[in-house]
Specification:
Blueprint: E1 10-15, H1 17-25, H2 27-35, E2 41-43, H3 61-70, E3 77-81, H4 88-102, E4 106-110, H5 115-123, H6 137-151, E5 159-162, E6 167-169, E7 179-180, E8 184-185, E9 200-204, H7 211-217, E10 220-224, H8 228-236, E11 251-258, H9 264-272, E12 279-284, H10 290-299, H11 310-313
Parallel strand pairs: 1-2, 1-12, 2-3, 3-4, 4-9, 9-10, 10-11, 11-12
Antiparallel strand pairs: 5-6, 7-8
Helix pairs in contact: 1-2, 1-3, 3-4, 4-6, 6-7
């Protein structure tokens, strides 16, 4: 659903693993990020896009996002994942756990491939272990879908904490996912969904042939600047089946590179050229992300700072129940007197 004409697009930030570590190395920089007018920050952009792959230090995206969320109070984070390094069950546990810890300020961004894994395979002449699945659009789509389903296997409101009847949770509402696709996952998770609702799932699409799959499963899609205009029509034609409001469509964010020394006027010109995008992802190309974070403040000077759960701050509707007929795992609890 495109932004209204004349309104400013939302701003976001993309950090490589090394840049995320630079933020964590300096308390003042962490505080600057927390005060910045950003809808969210992608953690692990170097694990999603091939530009500059393998250069410099990196970090596990989910671990870095966890520490960043713990050291901030307002900033929101999407951590990078891909089918070549993550399995849906482990991924869903991390997503749900981080959703609880951050009070809904976190989510997941899926990519088709991980350039670091590809670089490792090249160095070992392909003799290293295959971590989970090969890189591919179908694999990324199924990873995102299975992760969404698993997070819904234990609804948060199944926890009733009824002391009088001595019932902690309605076990009969905990469901199996029974997902059969590229991955075969039964579930359920061993922890409930976050109190704030389903975690946000994004897709970083580097090519046009990923857009249809991305639009089918993601709350928002991030694309290179040059794909923004064509991506809008693909997203508008999506089914919206993963939203409780089926008339809603995924948000579109376009990536704008921010080299060191970028002036605010140049950045404004680049953001204006991203036709049809709901938001802009500023991607610093140097090792120090400070200038890009400060640039966000200049671009949205005087604007309201984002607050609350990420799904709400992006104006996304609740997620659809993907398991309406999911088989129960436990019998109904018996009241104890």
């Amino acid at each position: 659903m495109p932004r209204h004409h004349g309104s400013r697009p939302r701003l976001a930030l993309a950090l490589t693993g090394g840049q995320a570590l630079a933020v964590l190395d300096e308390d003042a920089l962490t505080a600057l990020l927390d005060r910045a007018p950003l809808a969210f920050t992608v953690v692990g952009a170097d694990r999603l896009a091939p530009v500059g792959a393998g250069a410099g230090r990196t970090a596990d995206p989910s671990a870095a996002a966890t520490v960043l969320a713990a050291r901030t109070t307002a900033a929101a984070f999407l951590f990078a994942s891909s089918p070549v390094r993550d399995h849906p069950y482990n991924l869903a546990r991390r997503v749900a756990s981080l959703g609880h810890l951050s009070h809904g300020r976190t989510g997941l961004v899926v990519g088709v491939a991980d350039p670091y894994v590809a670089a490792l395979a090249a160095r070992t002449h392909g003799e290293g272990p295959e971590l989970t699945r090969r890189a591919g659009t179908a694999e990324a789509h199924d990873l995102a879908l299975a992760t969404r389903e698993l997070e819904q296997t234990w609804p948060y409101d199944a926890i009733v904490a009824d002391r009088e009847q001595r019932i902690f949770a309605r076990g009969d509402r905990i469901r199996r996912a029974d997902h059969q696709g590229v991955y075969s996952v039964a579930g359920p998770l061993t922890l409930p969904a976050p109190r704030t609702g389903a975690s946000v799932v994004a897709w970083w699409a580097n090519r046009a042939d990923e857009l249809e799959a991305a639009a089918d499963v993601a709350d928002l899609v991030i694309v290179p600047h040059g794909l923004a205009s064509g991506a809008r029509s693909v997203l508008d034609a999506a089914s919206g089946r993963h939203f409780a409001d089926p008339g809603h469509r995924p948000l579109l964010f376009a990536v704008v590179d921010v080299p060191p020394g970028t002036a605010a006027a140049d950045a404004r010109a680049s953001t204006a050229a991203a036709a049809g995008a709901d938001g802009i992802v500023l991607r610093p190309t140097g090792p120090d992300p400070r200038e890009a974070i400060e640039l966000a403040g200049r671009l949205h000077a005087g604007g309201d700072l984002a607050a609350g759960p990420l799904r709400a701050r992006l104006g996304l509707p609740e997620a659809a129940d993907l398991l309406p007929d999911g088989p129960g795992v436990f019998p109904a609890p018996v009241p104890q007197r």
